[in-house]
Amino acid sequence: MNDVKWLQKKVAAQNHIIMGQERLLICYRIGTRKGVDGALDKIEKGKRMIAKLEQEATDVN
Q: Is residue 5 within 8 Å of 38, Cβ to Cβ?
């Protein structure tokens, strides 16, 4: 995979994690549980995306 495309995909995955963390923090500050599950799902999705990208990178090398 092209290095630039790989980095773009990794940055997108990291953005998923960051957005999920921001949502989680907002829910905590507001004191509500509404939105927590979605935030955690977004974080997990980002982690899975990064793991998949790293696996693909090691498979190529």
A: no
- Residue 33 to residue 35: CA distance in whole angstroms: 6
Closest CA to 15 of 23, 27, 3: 23
| Token output for 6 | 């790989």
Domain count across the chain: 1
| Distance, CA of 5 to CA of 13 (rounded, Å) | 12
Asked if the structure places residue 5 within a domain, the reply is: no
Mean pLDDT along residues 34-45: 92
Residues 6, 14: Cα–Cα separation, whole Å: 12
pLDDT in tens, 3-14: 888 889 999 999
